[in-house]
Write a structure and sequence with these properties.
single chain, about 425 residues, alpha/beta, eight-stranded mixed sheet, 18 strands, about 30% helix, about 25% strand, globular, binds flavin-adenine dinucleotide, binds pyrrole-2-carboxylate
């Protein structure tokens, strides 16, 4: 893989950009790999990357039914933070956040990580108590957050209205090192690094079945034939239930659509990320100037990757009362992604009842921020059979009642 650098840009500019090589190869699938990962979203690609980087396992194929990053990874609103309440969550999300800090250098691709700061507004007494509690827990966990006053909120976000018609702003949970990154670039950067290690990324190849012998996985049936493997990682977000069914077990998970929209670009007006979870809407400004806006999940299970009018109405209404100036903005695009919700709003990173088959899912509305840490933990679990970061997130927690309740930290209405 040739390194991207200022020198490379200058060299290619001088020769009319004819020397760039493809970022990743598109090989024909082989008959067998040591490891097959299903799903070329951020979590699947990061798992493959860390398998190679940390464990020296490079005979790996990542199989994707569409195009890489075309699932939730390329559809999310890119908020990165680690201000969760429970210890296992803070550990994995903070690991991920810290890996984002150096991702552009580590993967030699600019993922535009922007640690601009994230505020979760407190608009009820209940939220004030909840976020104060989180700030205290975060202090114990080594995660830098603080509860800030309404005056400090206004200082950070001059366009905010503190006295909304329904709920005043009573303060906020502020994480100064939270922020955003360019979602596609995260997928592309991992794909490029995996390809450079000799791994195969196979797009437009749908997994339609899982094969096994004597309780041990042997491979997957795909739209391009059978592909054998020693170990299988299922990392397909909203489609985790279907994949599990193919492998002969059930997951405690539901698929629902989560929607987002984006406005026309305007001059810079807000340089932090704001989540207003009581009225329900969140907003940041992209580098192009668009306001990136999201709301809650659909109230019913579905697989539509589209937007709907009632969501625009609810979400924009919430944001107009928080930021009155956006009432004059035109909205450009709206879309949806299929998120994978568990009952405790925490992910599953686990071995499964089928030998050699592992699952990583359940990131729900909040897994973009977790991509590098999740891949790290999943790779360790697949390579060694155990990972300290993943241990609490095993499937056994649902049987044993060890739930990791993060419904408040998820910050998105479900
Ligand atoms: P995906 O990116 O969905 O990848 C799974 C892949 O598996 C897909 O590409 C799919 O095509 C493939 N696949 C499925 N079935 C098969 C099959 N049978 N064979 C082969 N391939 C298959 N998180 C945050 O942290 N911050 C946010 O601000 C945020 N905002 C969001 C906003 C929206 C609108 C949405 C939808 C999500 C948001 N999220 C956010 C959540 C985040 O996007 C997801 O948790 C994360 O991207 C999941 O990544 P993934 O790699 O697990 O899944
Ligand atoms: O997890 O921070 C988050 C988030 C924001 C919007 C959707 N998810």
């Amino acid at each position: 893989m040739r390194r991207y650098s200022a020198f490379a840009i200058a060299r290619e500019a001088a020769r009319h950009h004819r020397g760039w090589e493809r970022a990743w190869a598109s090989p024909e699938p082989r008959k067998r790999y040591d490891v097959v990962i299903v799903g070329a979203g951020g979590h699947g690609l990061a798992t493959a990357y860390w398998l190679g980087k940390n464990h020296g396992i490079t005979d790996v194929a990542v199989i994707e039914k569409g195009w890489l990053g075309g699932g939730n990874t390329g559809r999310n609103t890119t908020i990165i933070r680690s201000n969760y309440l429970q210890d296992p969550s803070a550990a994995i999300y903070e690991k991920a956040r810290s890996l984002y800090e150096t991702m552009s250098q580590d993967l030699n691709m600019n993922v535009m990580f922007s640690p601009r700061g994230v505020i979760m507004l407190a608009q009820t007494e209940h939220e004030v108590r909840g976020y104060r509690r989180t700030a205290m827990a975060n202090a114990q966990q080594g995660v830098a957050t603080e509860f800030i006053s309404p005056a400090r909120v206004k200082e950070l976000v001059p366009i905010i209205s503190l006295d909304g018609p329904r709920y005043p702003v009573l303060g906020g949970l502020w994480q100064a090192r939270g922020g955003t990154a360019r979602h596609d670039a995260v997928a592309w950067a991992y794909a490029r690094a995996c390809s450079a290690m000799g791994m195969h990324i196979i797009q437009k190849c749908e997994v339609t079945g899982v094969t096994s012998e004597n309780g041990q996985v042997t491979g997957v049936e795909t739209s391009r034939g059978h592909i054998g493997c020693g170990k299988l990682g299922m990392v397909v977000a909203g489609h985790a239930g279907q994949l599990a069914e193919m492998a002969g077990f059930r997951l405690p998970i539901e698929a629902v659509a989560l929607q987002a929209l984006v406005s026309e670009p305007i001059k810079p007006c807000m340089d932090v990320v704001v989540m207003a979870n009581t009225v329900h809407g969140y907003m940041s400004q992209s580098d192009k100037g668009e306001m990136v806006i999201g709301g809650g999940t659909d109230g019913f299970n579905n697989f539509t990757q589209r937007g709907s009018f009632h969501h625009i109405e609810e979400t924009v209404r919430a944001l107009v009362e928080t930021f009155p100036m956006i009432s004059r903005l035109k909205m450009l695009r709206q879309w949806g992604g299929i998120v994978d919700m568990t009952g405790d709003r925490s992910p599953i990173i686990s071995a499964t009842p089928l030998g050699g088959c592992y699952v990583n899912c359940g990131w729900g509305t909040g897994g973009f921020k977790a991509i590098p840490g999740s891949g790290w933990a999943m790779a360790e679990l697949m390579a060694k059979g155990d990972s300290p970061l993943a241990r609490a997130f095993s499937l056994s927690r649902f049987r044993e009642g060890r739930f990791i309740d993060e419904s408040v930290a998820a910050g998105v209405a479900h």
